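User: quick one, fold this
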Amino acid sequence: MSVPYPTIDPVLLKIGPFSLRWYSLAYIGGLAVGWWYLTRLIKKTPLWPKSGPPVTRQQLDDVIFWVAIGVMAGGRLGYLLFYEPNLIIAPWEKLFGVVPFPPALMTWNGGMSFHGGLLGVTLVGVWFARKHKINMLSLGDMFACATPIGLFFGRIANFINAELYGRPWDGAWAMVFPTDPQQVPRHPSQLYEAALEGVALFTILFVATRKFGFLKRPGAAMGLFLFGYGISRIIVENFREPDAHMPDFPLGLTMGMMLSIPMLALGGWLIWRTFRTPQQTPSQKAKA
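Assistant:
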């Protein structure tokens, strides 16, 4: 039993040798919508510590540019290091049949790594925070609130590309993906990830920051994001087909699980660290 895969051309627009792909638009859309959301979030000063949001509107516009660089550079480098290091030394190929180009920079060949993109954004955030004397943890909280938006767009793009599909399954909503060489019904694991890493995680962070004051405790929202993503990714890895070129890891672990376990641990530690000391009220601080 399976449902028809809704085939969508991965290329939205093609002009000569240039193609505009849904995958590229997912990155652009994720950054644009994330920026728009953060412009609203930093205006809600009661949600932040007494010092206010970590950035001004102008600083937000500046840091988004560097975040885009961190996402792209880190995401690609992470994919090369974690999944296909052989592409780093692979012979150059001719782009459009004319221009020599290294396969390592061909993002359409293999794709990107979220964990690498996260490391890239972390480095950018640390540099930006030190340069402008911004609280690093509050800046990380701000990034964490918007990241599920980009994750949602990215997983939908994976689904359109019919890549990163799930393990074989004969359930009610199984699909046969056109890129699957075995042509068997599988879990639409990209949609599971879009639901968990995108919709569910965004909702959890939204409620935590608005109802439980997570932004008032620098590092809490970032910890919640890391913990929530780690759990979501580990769950979905049980339904997602492991990359064929990856080695077999012990205990049935996958590379995605192994990269997410440190996120889970760090997120849990950040949450514990920020909540171990109760916040003082203004009157308590005055007495102290």
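User: anything notable?
Assistant: The longest helix spans residues 57-82.
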